[in-house]
Write a structure and sequence with these properties.
By secondary structure, the chain is α/β, with parallel strands linked by helices. It is built from 10 helices and 14 strands. The strands form 2 sheets. Strands 5-4-3-2-1-12-13-14 form an 8-stranded mixed sheet, with helices on both faces. A 6-stranded mixed sheet has the order 8-7-6-9-11-10. β13, α9 and β14 form a beta-alpha-beta unit. α1 runs parallel beside α10. The chain is globular. The protein starts with 12 loop residues before the first strand and ends with a helix.
Length: 280
Amino acid sequence: MINYGMKKTDIRLVVADIDLTLIGYMNGLPDLNKKAMEELHRQGFLFGLASGRTVLQLRNKIKEWDLNFEPELLIGVNGQAFYDGLEKKEETLLVLEKEWVEDILDFLDAFGYDYHAYIDTYTLFRRKDSQFYKIFRQMDRDVRLAERKDDFLAEGNFYKFLLMKEDNDMDRLLKDIKPLLEKHKKHFKIVKTTGKTYEIVHARASKAYALEIFCRRHGIDLKDVAAFGDADNDNELIVASGMGVCLRDGQECTKALARYITDMDCADGGFGDFVFKHIL
């Protein structure tokens, strides 16, 4: 066993991203990962999920996986909302203000990006011809359409915008959006979540933001947290935790920030393999 410089019993809370950390895009939950989560619970560790998905979607994932317990922490929308399972309480932490949203919409429409917004418990589109509209209608989340800008702005709490470009020229996106980010640098930021997907989120939003609130509330030292992730939106979470772990097939920028790398890829159960070797 590798000496990780930490007693196994020091860890009190284990938190994991979902996509490309616990599950691959074309795969279900590896048996090894499910066994690891359930064994963590059996041995008295706290467990949490931290994702760009909403809290409702996280609950649906737990049902889909048929876990034999309910996680104590669900961090949704990259830290803009979370569920405290110890207090049985769900909270909204950060949302995008309507005046910022109007500027975001003007930019996206001017440059022809395909986008949708996470709003409360549903996903909002402006274009029926969006390549993602039909896909999202098949998912575990309510999908709505508001083709007029004023109708779009009249909706509820805006958590984030997901951006795609049909020609996959995402480097061009970062160049196009730079003036908008300069204007609103105190308000929102853009983060990469997968190879060809970016999200516009609140400037203070991060999975670590919600984690710190939960830990402070329940007297947990961040050095006693093990956090698993694979991409940009996991970076703050990994850095904030005493045991920050990146999957072997994660993004290079995240590997560079992680203290530890799993021996196995996501789809092979890299999370579960690491948990059994170095935490349990």
